[in-house]
Amino acid sequence: MSTHDTRNPCTKLCRYDAADRCMGCFRTRAEVRHWKRLPDETKAAINARIAARGGTVSKRDGKRAKKLDKKIHKLEAKLATLRARRSELEGSVVKAAE
Length: 98
Fold this sequence. Notes:
Layout: H1 29-33, H2 40-53, H3 59-97
């Protein structure tokens, strides 16, 4: 029997950052995808790396982060609309000045 920590660190908060790391458990997309087929030593090394980083994100914090991400997305969409309107106004002001 293995003495290594080979438990799956998944916290069910699967969202990936720009570096293709899960924001819930900090594994790469490839590590997540191939977890069941990885050797125990590799799983233990991944779990040790996660523990050294400070562990995984709790479900509560992860849910809060998801809500904030949704709000940010909505605000970014609204900001893009406002910027487009501003560009239209600037364009009409330039035309009126000519």
